[in-house]
Amino acid sequence: MNKIPYPISLSYFFILFVVLVVVSGPARAHQVLPSVVTVTLQESGTYLVSVNLNAEALIAGIGPDEEDTDDSVNAGFYDALRLLPPRELEAEFAKFLPVWLDGVELAFDGERSAPEFRGIVVPPVGNVSRQRISRVALEGSIPAGATELTWQYRAAFGDSAVRVGSADNAAIQTDFLQAGQISKPFPLGAELVPLSRSEVFVDYTWLGFTHILPKGLDHILFVLGIFLLSLKLRPLLWQVTAFTVAHSITLAMSLFGLVSLPANIVEPLIAASIVYVAVENILTDKLQPWRIYVVFAFGLLHGLGFAGVLTELGLPRSEFVTALIAFNVGVELGQLTVIVMAFLAVGLWFRNREWYRQRIVIPCSLLIALTGAYWTVERVLG
User: For residue 91, what are the contacts with CB-CB under 8 A and spacing of at least 6?
Assistant: First the structure.
């Protein structure tokens, strides 16, 4: 039995990778988002907790292990909850509250605190193709002499990002946690100091990287679309640079409050940008002069999409610029990783083969275009 040559097997791997991204893409769009937790320490010796969460998913018992909320056995219940007006969903959450509070562990010096529920704010029913994020408020007392606090969210409730600060201090410390993971200890009182510049840089670089790999499937497909048409190093680097500069501009402008577009406009346009790039790959066999300008324009859109992530998680006020730069660096590293993987899989071996376009570029671009079209329709119509 003849073995498949190593380079040929790599091409199959690359096509399989694109297929997996295409297949898993719609599922990822329906994954439960991490909860964002803000703990504010008061001079009065109390603390306030604000948790932004997907209340419907929690009530329906849909956790982080669900790749697609539509595939859950509780999908019907979840969809019904998403259609409830605010007051009715608040009533449903009140029934679930004891279970949720039992899964919230905020501890001082290792001793668990028991915060009191102060209410939930539920937004009106909007575009049901997008998750509705509610805000839960808690309040409790800081034990006398306590020196540090930790946060832990029950694994069934998914990932969380916790931010700790005080009402009279600009210092905020942040920790990004996987499901069930306990946070690092946050020092209290005068010891609550901002993270060092290097710590902020490392944290937000990693956040930017993971927003591309593995979480940013729409961005991955866009980058692959850029990669497929031309494997020449200089044009490829020019396109990636244009994309990076563009998304950095709108990300910064959005976070500084200079520009803003609602997600129900930005997200469909990002999906449409994937379609455009992929279709152009199919219709032309060489890089056109206008391609870099198109990539730059679409980069502006993707930057607004990135801004949504940082707006939810927040940036440390003491190192705002450092965190912003670090996030962009992480995004760029994620994009370059995608390109390097694609190049090692097919570009290194097949860029000069006559059949490269017919067997690699067109099939993969077609898959990418169909996925982008599906996402566009889904995000517009729900």
Answer: none
Report which secondary-structure segment, H or E, holds 50.
Answer: strand 46-53
Nearest CA-CA partner of 17 in 375, 348, 338: 338
141-144 long-range contacts (CB < 8 A, ≥24 apart) are 141/45, 141/46, 141/47, 141/113, 142/41, 142/45, 142/46, 142/47, 142/108, 142/188, 143/108, 143/109, 143/111, 143/113, 144/45
H or E element at residue 84: none
Name the nearest CA neighbour of 186 among 150, 152, 146: 150
Q: CB–CB of 171/194 below 8 Å?
A: yes
Model confidence at 304, in pLDDT bands (50, 70, 90)?
A: confident
Residues 6+ apart with CB under 8 A from 169: 192
Rounded Cα–Cα distance for residues 335 and 22 (Å): 17
- Distance between CA atoms of 4 and 6, rounded to whole angstroms? 6
Q: Residue 63 above 80 pLDDT?
A: no
Calpha distance 275→284 (Å, rounded)? 14
Provide the pLDDT for residue 204: 85
Residue 61, judged by CB atoms within 10 A of its CB (0-12, 13-18, 19+), counts as middle
Q: How far apart are CA 317 and CA 171, in angstroms?
A: 7
Q: Which of 289, 304, 283 is nearest to 366 (CA)?
A: 283
Whether residue 331 has pLDDT greater than 50: yes
Q: Which residues of 239-274 are buried (b: 16+ CB within 10 A; e: fewer)?
A: bbebbbebbbebbbbbbeeebeeebeebbbbbbbbb
Question: Residue 139 — pLDDT band, cuts 50, 70, 90?
Answer: very high
pTM: 0.69
Quickly count: other Cβ atoms within 10 Å of residue 5's Cβ: 10
Burial of 69 (0-12, 13-18, 19+ CB in 10 A): buried
Report the alpha-carbon distance of residue 347 to residue 334 in Å, rounded: 18
Q: How far is CA 272 from CA 40, 69, 288, in A?
A: 40, 24, 19
Nearest C-alpha neighbor of 58 from the set 82, 23, 86, 85: 82
Residue 248 or 230, more confident: 248
Integer-rounded Cα Rg, in Å, for the chain is: 23
